[in-house]
Amino acid sequence: MARVSEPIPRLLAPRLREALRDTPAVLIHGPRQCGKTTLARLVGDAQGYAYVSFDDTDIVAAARRDPVGFASGLPPRTILDEVQRAPEIFPSLKSMIDRHRAAGRFILTGSANVLLVPRLAESLAGRMGMLRLHPLAQCEIERRPSRFIHALFGGRFRTGIGERLGRGLVERVVAGGYPAALARRSAARRAAWYRDYVETQIQRDVRDLSRIHALDALPRLLAVAASHTATLINVADLAAPLELTRQTIHDYVTLLEHVFLLERLPAWHANRVSRLVKRPKLHVGDTGVACALLGVDARTLAGNRNIFGAMLETFVLQELRRQASAMPSPIGFFHYRDRDDFEADIVLERGTSISGVEVKAAASVNEGDFRGLRKLKAVAGPRFVSGVVLYDGAATIPFGDRLFGVPIRALWEAE
Question: Which residues belong to CATH 3.40.50.300 in the chain?
Fold first, then answer.
């Protein structure tokens, strides 16, 4: 995989430009270092926006000391970077917008998940659009469009033969998707960046969100969570190595979700079905972070199929999320599992349509791999449009009505 050495056009850019044409303020939220500022300035600089960063301690102090005066002195079109560090100005921004309601007045960026912090989201309700920016998708890294999700909801994949990725797939999983990490020349230096990144996140954003005392426990919890990625959440398993209470673990997982380092993938279920497992799955936000925390390089990961299988499932989920964030129609993400152990790793829901994805860390695919997808198809009924087993093989193969075995590389190469 090529090293990222220059800014990459982002999938979200067209949605940002569109939102600025009819919305007073647009928030780009996502983890630190995923490219929010670069995207905001790429779009904003071309349209004459001024730029203010709340990473500057003097600017933060001024905004907190006199939010009304600070906001009133802003230019008519301004980028406000890392706004979660100065929530005091949100009411003032609301007042400014209400006095002069024009589209595209503010581009905001934030590294704490404001959807989970009501104080920030409520202030600009009805006046602000929200766009989620993720780390780089593989199709962005490759600078090529992908139509995989369109094919998934269209229920059509063309039969064909290509090349399997092999070691290249393992290297992509370990490399992750953060631009600054991918700019480094070696895998060891990328891993060092990810470790430093986690420490910075915890010392800055987590400390801002919650005055917890045991900050040193959070990197250890994140490493434990990385070893349990793509599994049903079991608080007892997370708590045991750390000697923390279940409630503390729950609170800490929530904090790590707020800064996009962890996520819970909810279970999909039809209300009439009573035998479905309702627990969410736990996933790390980026496999580069997870592998660095576990001290796993490409060689080690390739030699441990259990860890690789879990990391690959998380890798596929995050790739699908990153691609879906650029689409105008929202897509919900879930997993499926029932009490008879039929399961599908990822369920995508768009409107009334349901698609399923199973992830297999192998070079072959067979009928047995579709066991969970066939059950999902039966439960979803007419809502089901397609099911795919993604595997590290060479051939796209139909396996019955709207069921396909598809090489993983088609995720970012399907056009």
Answer: 13-132
